[in-house]
Amino acid sequence: MKRELFAVLLVGLCLAFAACGSFAETPGERFRKAIKEINAACASRKLAPNEVCGEVAKLKPADPLATEEGRFAHSIKIPSPVPADSGYKPGMTPQEYFDHLCKTEAGEFIYKTVENVEGLYMMRPRKEASDDELSHLYALEDPYGQVLGDDRLPQDSYVQPATGKYEFLEMPLLGFQSRYRRYFRDEQAHPGRKYQTAIDGRSVFVPYIVAESEFSTKKSRFAHTWRGITRPHDRELGIAGGELILLDLNTGEVLAVRRGYIRTGMVRNLTGVSWLTGQVCQNSGAKREHLFVKGVLVPKSASATVKEK
Question: Which among 278, 274, 279, 276 is positioned nearest to 34, based on CA atoms?
């Protein structure tokens, strides 16, 4: 009877951790094993015409330096860089290592705030991640920022009128040199279209007035970009870090950095990886990316001052 009860408990634990292998098995080992199994399953049968099999297994690790925007982001020198030695010690569990990174490295590092900011340049717009990318250990450069960032309709977060919004938002036009997309307010842009938002804690519908156009020059003085953090033990233990960097384009000065980490959620999907349900550092702010940006680059108000921190 005791053996049967132990077996039931063991099965329950295996299911909870999405793997019935060794408890010493790392998320990286489980992921690589899962990819092999997916590839083997696809190879073992004849696929129907136009059938797609094992798309997640075909994804490649992200290349942070593949684009000009990525190379620039990784070239920025910040006042509080992460140490080369992350403090990992052999035998650390994923949770122990995650807690260590959150305690020693994560946080909001604000060097200067600026008020009365009219607009913002988003130097490195995020692309919306696919379900497969969110289930892959290496396909996303910055899963932390992907989960808390503004990859879908950032113009609504930064421009569509509500408390604390900018007059305009600019971003590079993908595939074109020296061309930019600008989102701005125009009350005649979408006659009759409504936008759901919250005012004083109540859900209301207001006119949607964000328009967009293309320009060859940008107006923004302030900008933000992002980059992933890559070190030997992070992904192997199912952890990914990212930095959001706010800049003064006129001087090149770094105004603020938000650094955070995410630990992949334990799920029963094909790979055992789920960034979307991951655990994020609380002391770095689990709030959305645009809220941090607007706390440093304060949207236009009655006064224009610069405050040193």
Answer: 274
Burial class (CB in 10 A: 0-12, 13-18, 19+), 170: buried
Give me 146's structure tokens.
């992907």
Q: Residue 31's CB: how many other CB atoms inside 10 A?
A: 23
How many residues in total does the chain contain?
A: 309
Nearest alpha carbon to residue 242 among 58, 68, 70: 70
First and final CA of the chain: distance in angstroms?
65
For tokens 């002391």, the residue is 283
Q: How many CB atoms within 10 Å of residue 42? A: 16
Distance CA 70, CA 306 (A): 29
pLDDT along the chain (309 residues), means of 10: 36 39 76 95 90 92 95 96 91 95 94 96 94 96 91 89 86 81 92 84 87 94 96 95 97 96 87 94 80 93 40
Contact in structure between 181 and 170 (CB atoms under 8 Å) = yes
Which position has the token pair 């797609």? Answer: 52
303 to 112, 253, 297: CA distances (angstroms)? 16, 22, 13
Q: Which of 273, 278, 267 is nearest to 27 (CA)?
A: 273
How large is the C-alpha radius of gyration of the chain? 22
DSSP 125: P
